[in-house]
Design goal:
Layout lengths: L3 H7 L2 E4 L5 H13 L6 E3 L7 H5 L5 H6 L7 E9 L8 E4 L4 E3 L9 E6 L2 E5 L2 H4 L3 E6 L10 E3 L11 H10 L3 E2 L7 E4 L5 E3 L9 E8 L13
């Protein structure tokens, strides 16, 4: 049996089924329904749902993370997405290349500085991104009809990709559609080449996007999330 660690290393992604119980899924659905933020999504979810921090330190998610990290990871970014026909968008093939930090410091290898909703972002060296794990916690069934994530296995092993690289990999390798049920968790490497299509249904496609790492940043840089 191929372990989740091996899948993440070889493919750049892995699926852990039924990590959240039906009750936990229902509780999160209700919380998001009652929160006064845009229906399509929200950055800095931890500011309105502080229980996200305890989610990663409690079973069974903590047990999953213990099998993937040598020491307990910290939460460095939390987002929420909901894609429906009314709040709909497609995402072209891309890699997640930036991190959120507290301040701008000139450090070799850190570039493409930007500000998103008041938070400083920067593109770090690949070695930083290779130590980050993204968790996409699904609150609804997700398939090819409602904008499931598509991925090109193994693309995370090629470092930063330019457009010519992306076009070549799309021709050489067949994309995989990551279909999940409510309560499942999709784990992925930030440099995995991925995309998603617009939803073709009216039902929700709610995802909690968490980024974790056990590393500190160099040169005095600090993660934006305290």
């Amino acid at each position: 049996m191929i372990t989740l660690t091996t899948q993440l290393d070889q493919r750049g992604y892995a699926i852990a089924p039924q990590i959240l119980t039906p009750k936990t899924v229902a509780d999160f659905r209700e919380r998001f329904h009652n929160q006064a933020f845009p229906r399509h999504g929200f950055r800095h979810v931890e500011t309105v749902l502080p229980e996200l921090r305890s989610l990663i330190t409690a079973a069974p998610l903590a047990e999953l993370l213990a099998s993937l990290f040598s020491s307990p990871p910290k939460l460095i970014r939390a987002l929420y997405f909901n894609k429906t026909q009314n709040t709909n968008w497609g995402v072209p093939w891309h890699q997640d290349k930036t991190i959120a930090v507290q301040q701008r410091i000139a450090i070799p290898g850190f570039s493409a500085w930007s500000v998103k909703q008041g938070v400083i972002h920067v593109q770090p060296p690949t070695r930083i991104l290779e130590q980050i794990l993204t968790l996409r916690i699904h609150l609804d069934p997700t398939n090819e009809n409602n904008g499931a994530l598509q991925a090109i296995p193994g693309s995370h092993r090629h470092g930063f990709l330019v457009r010519a690289d992306i076009d070549r990999l799309k021709k050489e390798r067949s994309p995989v559609t990551c279909c999940l049920n409510a309560g499942d968790v999709l784990m992925m490497q930030p440099l995995l080449l991925h995309s998603s299509r617009k939803s073709q249904t009216e039902r929700d496609r709610r995802v909690i996007h968490l980024e974790l790492t056990h590393q500190n940043l160099p040169g005095g840089l600090q993660w934006a999330m305290r």
